[in-house]
């Protein structure tokens, strides 16, 4: 009886320390918190690796505007990849989540610099056989432009979830989410929700941002998924991505919204299936 109780105590201790895995969850031994130097300070990041794998492909995941690396969408994608033998590195852009920097200093261009710093970090990791990029909303724009800058030789594959290429047109029109402003006479900051202040430089940068012109420089495998019910970023912006990628695939989800809230699991599974096809050959 005492031996049985001792075994129970040891098992409970191992579980608490994160050295065992329960069900389909990810143990602490497979997930590592990181701090990576970005363009505007240190970036909070999480490296998630497949259990027991000696070598593995890795996907860098970029979150959207005002979002972070810990949303259900980003977390679900990372877990799906891990279950299929693919590592992921997800991070908070400057001014977002747990990363340093002020939100009002954030621009798409310095988010691209953040993504490049994260790529450089990933490229030095042991056991990583290739690096791919994925992004949702503005993170999709950042991923696509980063892939264009880095080039096809460095980026194995690319997945864009409702990429917000509308941001340039919105900046020209004087719209950001529910905020309206004079695009020709910009204030220093534009108030958004939750006391967030959008900086003037964000809009100035966005108004002339060469999104597709930069993205087209990448011509590796690319996958776009977009809901036809997306009222924030019309799916036509993904259709344009599809036209510039010679090796691209487009999946339109009938009635789905910008955050894939009707079926997050389904959207993440579609992206995972794509990466499995490209990376596990």
From TrEMBL:
* Parts of the chain that traverse the membrane: none
For this UniProt record, give its keywords in alphabetical order, as a comma-separated list.
Answer: Signal
Q: Does the keyword Cytoplasm apply?
A: no
Serine aminopeptidase S33 domain residues? 58-170
One term of GO molecular function: carboxylic ester hydrolase activity
Q: Where is the signal peptide?
A: 1-29
Q: Does the keyword Signal apply?
A: yes
Protein's organism: Selenomonas ruminantium
What is the protein name stated in its UniProt record?
Answer: Serine aminopeptidase S33 domain-containing protein
């Amino acid at each position: 009886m005492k031996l049985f109780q001792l075994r129970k105590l040891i098992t409970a201790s191992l579980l608490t320390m994160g050295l065992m895995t329960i069900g389909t969850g990810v143990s602490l031994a497979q997930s590592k918190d990181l701090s990576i130097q970005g363009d505007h300070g240190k970036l909070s990041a999480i490296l998630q690796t497949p259990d027991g794998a000696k070598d593995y492909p890795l996907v860098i995941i970029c979150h959207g505007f005002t979002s972070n690396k810990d949303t259900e969408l980003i977390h679900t994608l990372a877990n799906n990849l891990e279950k299929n033998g693919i590592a992921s590195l997800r991070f908070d852009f400057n001014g977002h989540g747990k990363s340093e920097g002020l939100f009002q200093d954030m621009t798409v261009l310095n988010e691209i610099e953040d993504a490049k710093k994260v790529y450089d970090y990933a490229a030095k990791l042991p056991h990583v056989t290739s690096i791919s990029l994925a992004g949702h909303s503005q993170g999709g724009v950042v991923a696509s432009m980063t892939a264009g800058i880095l080039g096809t030789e460095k980026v194995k594959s690319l997945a864009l979830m409702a990429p917000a290429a509308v941001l340039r047109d919105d900046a020209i029109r004087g719209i950001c989410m529910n905020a309206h402003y004079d695009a020709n006479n910009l204030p220093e900051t534009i108030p958004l929700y939750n006391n967030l202040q959008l900086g003037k430089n964000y809009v100035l940068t966005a108004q002339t941002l060469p999104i597709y012109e930069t993205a087209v420089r990448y011509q590796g495998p690319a996958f776009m998924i977009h809901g036809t019910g997306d009222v924030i970023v019309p799916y036509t912006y993904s259709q344009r991505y599809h036209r510039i990628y010679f090796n691209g695939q487009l999946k339109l989800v009938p009635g789905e919204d910008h955050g894939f809230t009707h079926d997050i699991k389904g959207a993440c599974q579609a992206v995972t299936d794509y990466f499995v096809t490209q990376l596990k050959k």
